């Protein structure tokens, strides 16, 4: 993913459009001399993985998606459908203005990274009925909570330190630029509207994931086989939140291995 870790992180927002990202993956396969691969992605990575498998089934022969189901193109620009009020706006709208979220997140990357898991995975009750409100950002405040968040059991202080150190070095502009291409991607993908994902697929998510509980997600999951005809299975992990592979590494790994073994040689 460009913009993350030690990868290139162009400043220009339009360098993070979907065709660049799929092109990066194809370029990586060429560099590795890998004719085909199975692609696995989580969250934003899952969105890119779906499009890679959809646009280049000759290179991506199967897909495993974690958290995010395949989402058909919306009838209108994505940002126009996102909720906002006088007091608050959806977090992806908050990310649109360059420099605003960067200033908040880069003030203390460790605080930022510590808050992220807490937002994605509730400790007890699922997100049903409140996923939307959790995704709203106060116009008077910001995205980060006012007090420190406890670490979940699956995230160690050492791991948090690695993530915080990487973002302290690279900054958040690259990752935030993905959100700033939401409407550009909607425009670019118009020519492919109605095109199906034609390779074998596996979808894994937690039943406590805020993505799963968000408006429209249940219908997208239920109807996914209409646009992903070779969808092999939908696995919903009980009491698992958004960080699927971190929260349930054994179950996720076992499901992926079983799926890989089922594919044609």
CATH topology: the name is Rossmann fold
CATH class: Alpha Beta
Q: Cα distance, first to last residue? A: 28 Å
CATH level-four homologous superfamily name = Alpha/Beta hydrolase fold, catalytic domain
What is the CA-atom radius of gyration, in angstroms? 18 Å
Structure description:
This protein has helices spanning 18-32, 44-55, 91-94, 100-106, 109-120, 131-134, 157-170, 173-179, 182-188, 210-213, 217-222, 224-227, 244-247, 249-262, and strands spanning 37-42, 60-66, 88-90, 136-138, 201-206, 231-237. The protein is α/β, with parallel strands linked by helices. It has one domain (13-262): 3-Layer(aba) Sandwich (Rossmann fold), CATH 3.40.50. The strands form two sheets. A four-stranded parallel sheet has the order 1-2-5-6, with helices on both faces. Strands 3-4 form a two-stranded antiparallel ribbon. Helix 2 links the parallel strand 1 (37-42) and strand 2. Helix 1 (18-32) packs across helix 2 (44-55) and helix 5 (109-120) packs across helix 7 (157-170). The longest helix has 15 residues, at 18-32. It is globular and about 50 Å long. The two termini are 28 Å apart.
């Amino acid at each position: 993913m460009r913009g993350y870790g030690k990868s290139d992180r162009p400043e220009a927002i339009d360098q993070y459009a979907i065709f660049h990202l799929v092109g990066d993956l194809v370029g990586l396969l060429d560099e590795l001399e890998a004719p085909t691969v199975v692609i696995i992605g989580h969250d934003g990575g899952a969105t890119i993985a779906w499009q890679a498998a959809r646009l280049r089934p000759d290179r991506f022969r199967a897909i495993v998606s974690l958290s995010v189901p395949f989402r058909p193109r919306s009838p209108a620009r994505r940002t126009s459908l996102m909720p906002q009020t006088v007091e608050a706006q959806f977090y992806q709208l908050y990310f649109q203005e360059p420099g605003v979220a960067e200033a908040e997140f880069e003030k203390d990357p460790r605080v930022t990274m510590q808050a992220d898991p807490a937002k994605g995975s509730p400790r007890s009750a699922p997100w049903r009925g409140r996923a939307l409100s959790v995704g709203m950002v106060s116009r008077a405040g910001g995205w980060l909570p006012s007090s420190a968040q406890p670490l979940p059991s699956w995230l160690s202080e050492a791991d948090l330190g690695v993530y915080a150190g990487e973002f302290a070095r690279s900054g958040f502009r690259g990752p935030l630029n993905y959100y700033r291409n939401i409407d550009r991607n909607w425009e670019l993908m118009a020519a492919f509207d109605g095109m199906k994902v034609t390779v074998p697929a596996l979808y894994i998510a937690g039943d406590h994931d805020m993505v799963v509980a968000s408006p429209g997600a249940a219908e997208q999951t239920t109807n996914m086989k209409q646009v992903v005809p070779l969808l092999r299975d939908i696995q919903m992990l009980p009491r698992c939140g958004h960080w699927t592979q971190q929260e349930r590494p054994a179950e996720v790994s076992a499901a992926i291995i079983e799926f890989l073994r089922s594919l044609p040689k």
